[in-house]
Write a structure and sequence with these properties.
By secondary structure, the chain is an alpha+beta fold. The chain has a 6-stranded mixed β-sheet with strand order 4-9-7-8-5-6, covered by helices on one side. Strands 16-24-20-22 form a 4-stranded antiparallel β-sheet, covered by helices on one side. Helix 1 packs across helix 3, helix 1 packs across helix 7 and helix 3 packs across helix 8.
Length: 437
């Protein structure tokens, strides 16, 4: 969309704002709104359902039985890594102490104001601390552009229409990514439990949750296939990963999340601690997380090369299989199927919802459908090709989302700072709606 600029501009002297339309005013934010944190509320008072929504620093947190505000307001996150983000609340709601309620002291469009605040990148005004916090005093004194109320509503109308279009395109790409992930999961699951030949005769596996497998396949417990099974070591490490080749590090449990081995997920071993070379990672090692969230515990990945300086941590199992019996990558794919995941999650234990554990027996006793070694290799090759295609489509969709989000932000910024003139477009939209009514 090509939109015109205003006929004449003037310099505001404000670095982030630059020139604005000549007839616009500028003033400090505190001349237009009052910024005030909400009221504290305990976690016990917040429920999944209730009469009134609770808003914190990052948006909705749940519901409670009373409210602190009524109306349509922009809210600014006050604490945390995302402090400075902008959300909206409408009706009766509770604003927590982690949200700054933006209350107009003169008539303004809430949408125009909220999008202007979003454009200002308020996170840059956070005060450095263990828990970053927004400096309300600094923000209150920032200078902002101030068009007329009528023009604010024109901008809000324009942005409502155009961002809805962009959001619909983003949603479509996100749906595509979800479908691609489902396709990936279904392709892997079918390949490692049913094989590649749709005409292969099937038999009952003898394992209730596994169902039927190809007639010529066997089923076996993992403990009968391996040559070694061990846990690692978790010393007190540095807060950063290995910095240079040859330095020693200890893997983090997240190195296997998503079914891919991520060697960069490690912490450097302090120089005063002696490494344990036998815990170094070798090509073909199957690594399985034994402690994580319920959704991630049991995640598995295979090291595709040697990482002799990266050691196994004690939240990971390392499985090495008997040669010429089992391909580690085949088992890794299998451990990611819904069938295997259901058994792993069923066996997981722990009082905390954020961290559960599985014992060695959970993996050792797990039944695996097993074709011949040659067929395992054919299945792995097939899945590599299929996943490469799905990954390429996913990357393209993610790139599209990133470009759309950039377009959205640029459009909002241009409109609320007067770099484009949307008055005629918004008025045409208003006339069209009136005629339709």
């Amino acid at each position: 969309m090509s939109l015109p600029r205003y006929p004449r501009y003037k310099d505001t002297g404000v670095m982030w704002l630059g020139d604005v339309p000549e007839h616009w005013h500028t003033c400090s934010l505190k001349r237009v709104v009052k910024l005030q944190s909400g009221d504290s509320i305990t976690g016990e008072s917040i429920e999944e359902q209730g009469a009134y929504p609770v808003y914190g620093g990052n948006g909705s947190r749940g519901y409670t039985t009373s409210f602190t505000h009524e109306g349509y307001f922009a809210l600014i996150g006050r604490q945390g890594a995302l402090c400075g983000n902008v959300n909206y609340a409408n009706g009766k709601f509770w604003a927590s102490e982690h949200a700054v309620v933006v209350t107009p002291i003169k008539p303004v469009s809430t949408v125009w104001l909220g999008e202007l605040l979003r454009t200002m990148n308020l996170n840059q005004y956070s005060v450095a601390a263990a828990q970053p916090g927004l400096s309300v005093d600094i923000i209150s004194n920032l200078r902002i552009p101030l068009p007329s109320l009528e023009e604010q509503y024109c901008i809000a109308t324009f942005l409502g229409r155009e961002t809805s279009k962009i959001d619909a395109l983003i949603s479509a790409q996100e749906t595509l990514i979800t479908l691609l992930a489902e396709k990936r999961q279904a392709t892997i699951s079918h390949a490692v439990t049913k094989g590649l030949n749709p005409n292969t005769p099937m038999k009952d596996s003898g394992v209730e949750w596994l169902g039927k497998v190809p007639m010529h396949w066997t089923t076996n417990r993992i403990k009968h296939l391996l040559s070694s099974f061990e846990q690692g070591w978790s010393p007190q490490c540095e807060g950063f990963p290995v910095q240079s080749e040859g330095d020693w590090g200890v893997l983090k449990v997240g190195c296997v999340n998503g079914g891919f081995f991520r060697p960069e997920e490690n912490k450097a071993l302090p120089i005063e601690l002696a490494p344990l070379p036998y815990l170094g990672i070798a090509k073909g090692d199957l690594l399985i997380s034994r402690a994580n969230t319920r959704e991630l515990v049991g995640s598995a990945a295979v090291a595709l090369q040697d990482y002799a300086n990266l050691m196994l941590c004690d939240k990971l199992f390392r499985v090495r299989f008997v040669a010429d019996v089992c391909e580690p990558m085949f088992v890794a794919h299998y451990l990611g199927t819904e069938m295997a995941r259901s058994q792993i999650e069923l066996a997981a234990s722990g009082a905390s919802s954020s961290m559960v554990n599985i014992g060695q027996s959970t993996i050792l006793e797990l039944e695996v459908p097993l074709p011949t070694l040659l067929e395992q290799q054919e299945i792995i090759k097939f899945l590599n090709n299929e996943n490469a295609l799905l990954d390429a489509l996913t990357v393209e969709a993610e790139r599209g989302i990133a470009l759309l989000k950039e377009r959205r932000s640029a459009l909002i910024s241009a409109a609320v700072t007067g770099k484009i003139d949307v008055r005629k477009t918004a008025q045409q939209e208003s006339s069209t709606l009136q005629e339709a009514a």
